[in-house]
Amino acid sequence: MIIDGEAAITRGGEHLATVGSGDFFGEIALLEPVRRTATVTATTPISFFVVSEHAFKSVLDTDTAIERKVLRTLARRLVSLSGDPTLS
Length: 88
Description:
Layout: E1 2-4, E2 6-11, E3 14-20, H1 27-31, E4 39-42, E5 47-48, H2 53-62, H3 64-82
Antiparallel strand pairs: 1-5, 2-3, 2-4
């Protein structure tokens, strides 16, 4: 999770999104052993914290509000990356 600052999310040199305070990234790698789906680059000085896979899964198992936020964010990201205008 980003505590302070801003970062750009890109894939293949294409800008996908900008994230800032309160946003998170890297959740896909914590849920599935897949290759990176994007690159995150700080665009301002940034403060963030790292969560281990075990801690992340433990939080999802015990806090349904956080689990729902992660699921909603994943769904929004999939829709935006699909390129399907009927899903917007």
